[in-house]
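Appendix B: complex inputs.
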Amino acid sequence: MADVAVHHEADHGHHSSTGLSNNKLAMWLFLGSECLLFGGLISTYMLYRGRVSNGPHPSAIYDIPFTSVSSFVLLMSSLTMVLAVTSAQRGDDKKTNLWLIVTALLGATFIGGQVYEFTTFYREGLGFTTSLFGSSFYALTGFHGVHVSVGVIFLLSTMGIIKKNRITGNKAEVVELIGLYWHFVDIVWIVIFTLVYLIPA
Amino acid sequence: MSAATEQHTDSHDHGLTDAGYIKIALILAAITALEVSTYYIDFGALFMPLLLGMMVVKFVMVVSYFMHLKFDNKIFSFLFYVGLALALFCYIVALATFKFFIA
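Resulting structure:
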């Protein structure tokens, strides 16, 4: 009986007095706090986007078709992530790994697009210190890019530990937590895409 | 079936099927296409509310369905939406201080 209880605890992680997983509670709390970080960066960009003393104006350098494709890629990575979560909940390791690698590839494609965009902007005369617009733009989209990169590392690490069967707790919950982080990165981009790229300065 | 097993089954039965998630993704893709169309088509005075509305719909759909908030315990929704509301309040006040909303 005690063995069953211990096994159950190992399978489903530690739970708080609410009956909810502590890990999941902590992740949601973390995501709530991340709203404050990105809120600050987005507000700063909104204030400074029209402050162009030197260098190109936003409308002169933004490539909307290119960024739209990047946005679509990131949006579709949310679908592949949720499919990884449902596969993990069914206990299908093979499909979980498949969807995790597809999500990581889509994330890497998005990052590749961002590197290309930054390089193009720099060549067109927009450096980090060129204008207040440049500083706030690179700070906001750069921070988001770092979050996506960290997400890709999380995805690949999760895939590795699933393959080596090194997850001691609830495997589905681990994939779900990574999924929550990944979807959060996606919703931040939904806001950035509209407020930064589609609404003219 | 023990209470613990019931709870376990309950937490994993929530959410949509794979086909349901694909439908949500297609709706999100269609909204994104509409958003991009505002860059090429002149919607006049509707431009800003339309764009912000579509942004909010996409945001809520991802949070509700892909992040499972619609199906999960309400405490998770509380933690996230309180953080979001706090951020919105804080930064709207900050932007108002800098007269951002005055044309």
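The radius of gyration of chain A is 20 Å.
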